[in-house]
Amino acid sequence: MNLLAEMEMFIRVVECGSFAAAADASGVSATMVAKRIRNIEQRLGARLIHRTTRRQQLSEAGQLYYERSRQVLKEAAVAESSVSELQAVPSGLLRIAAPVSFGSASVVPALAEFMAKHPAVRVDLTLDNAPPKFSKGNYELVIHIGAVDEPGIVVRPLEPYRRKLVAAPRYLARRGTPKRPEELALHDCLGLTYWQRRDRWRLVGPRGANCDVPVRGAFTANHGEAVRVAAIEGLGIALLPEATLTHDLAAGRLVPVLPAWSLAPSPMYLAYTQDRRPTAKLRSAIDFLLHRFGARR
After folding, report:
1. What positions does the domain HTH lysR-type occupy (predicted)?
2. Cα gap 162→264, rounded to integer Å
């Protein structure tokens, strides 16, 4: 018999006034009740109940054990209730990771809307382009560009991650607008230092056509935001995430270049550990993010 069950039986004996009455309330024999009380006393090394043929009385140790046992069972009930509430109402801290550019431009506004709907949820967002490591226990949800190979992880497809060729109007006024992808070789092209092939853009065009273009430029950076600002400042043509360009295109700070051509879209996924009883917080966050960013059929 587990410890909580023994405490519950002891409390029942005290409150019912006898072993026989506790046995009736528990649906067991009085002999079984007496045996369980003896087990508690032997484990504790103390007499809890003074028994005679006519009455029973708590010892000092028994009174203390009774009071503490009631408190323990009350706390256990609160713990059970708290978990049930957590399962029912989205609340608590949501730990999530997302790619740097997509996270800043798209995930943060989405999370603001999610938190407005669920004010009891707090969010800890990590922006990181590295593959997730669920085994370290740092995240509950991860949005990742590319394959997620960690075992035991549920992976749900999102809309592919797309990039666009853009430039500032003043750059194009000065250098001209390329009409074919091959003409990019004659332009200043802004690069990211962590790309494996910074000197070559492998573009995909209409009907799946491919064009492998050698590129060069006077400016590179290790962060997409720096490349975006460089493009706005007229330093060259950039390949930037579609999600980061909405406001710049609408304001005319940047304009599309060769709109029919770009890098091949990259697969993007929502990943999370398999949980047979996920919290309401996690369930609602998964549903919300899939509705917002999930792959369209």
Report:
1. 1-59
2. 7
